[in-house]
Design goal:
183 residues, alpha/beta, Metallo-beta-lactamase, Chain A, six-stranded mixed sheet, five-stranded mixed sheet, 4 helices, 13 strands
């Protein structure tokens, strides 16, 4: 089961980002209770409340997967004290005392793919008819207009990742704009 706990937000003023908080996604498989991206500190109560509605508590989460390690995607990692945190070793802030390499995460219901461009270590999580993409597609507009994220380390790489995501033909959980439904 996949639930969007928080859809995220991205506010710009005069072309500059003034407020950003990532989407937060709960995925439950037979083996794991997973959170993909944990958003910003000020979203803690929203996360706890939505989890409670779904009969979960933060202590029930055993895996956190961060699509990349920008602050607006990781600030609530500590909320999930029983979880193992996974990310890409290609992220500049990757610390092996905090994070495990995502390639060591094993669950037959989950596939993690590399989707670099926004950062060199950006990853996406595939579960059934969904792909949770972080800032490989921060907004629905990125998918609709087929444009890479404004903030990127490599525009061409970001575009290739976006094309890869779209070609999966799955519902896309964006980094900051809820779910883009394919069907």
């Amino acid at each position: 089961m996949l639930h969007l706990i928080y859809e995220g937000e991205l506010l710009r003023k005069d072309g500059f980002i003034v407020k950003a908080a990532s989407s937060v996604t709960l995925i439950t498989t037979e083996k794991h209770n997973i959170i993909v991206d944990t958003s910003t500190n000020n979203k803690e109560n929203i996360i706890k409340s939505k989890l409670k509605e779904l009969n979960f508590e933060p202590k029930d989460i055993d895996v956190v997967i961060n699509t990349h390690l920008h602050y607006d995607h990781i600030e609530n990692n500590e909320l999930f004290e029983n979880a193992t945190w996974f990310a890409s070793t290609k992220e500049p802030n990757f610390d092996s005392t905090e994070f495990k390499d995502y390639r060591f995460f094993k669950d037959d219901e989950i596939e993690i793919i590399e989707t670099p461009g926004h950062t060199y270590g950006s990853i996406s999580v595939i579960y059934k008819d969904y792909v949770v993409v972080g800032d490989a597609a921060p907004l629905k507009e990125n998918i609709i207009k087929k444009i890479p994220p404004r903030l990127h380390v490599d525009r061409e790489l970001a575009m290739k990742s976006l094309e890869k995501i779209i070609s999966l033909n799955k519902n896309i959980v964006t980094g900051h704009d809820g779910i883009y439904y394919i069907k």
